[in-house]
Amino acid sequence: xxxxxxxxxxxxxxxxxxxxxxxxxxxxxxxxxxxxxxxxxxxxxxxxxxxxxxxxxxxxxxxxxxxxxxxxxxxxxxxxxxxxxxxxxxxx
Length: 92
Known about the structure:
By secondary structure, this protein is mostly helical. It has three helices and three strands. The protein has one domain. The longest helix has 16 residues, at 34-49. The radius of gyration is 14 Å and the shape is globular. The protein starts with a strand and ends in a 14-residue tail after the last helix.
């Protein structure tokens, strides 16, 4: 499930409650900020309420490598992210 469109970068509780009820993963579209950290905590709470282990709900956020530095990656880890998948776009 996706969440966090640019117009509303912080997913609502209604959206976050759907993830543990209906999905095995979540594709958040938000930057790693305090809002992101609190959003992950809300998702964990809703997973618990739904009888799901939050660790079993995959998260795959999209970020630009150009935005990163060591501090940035520490923020990613603090939000609960445990791995990174790198992709690239080729140029013609």
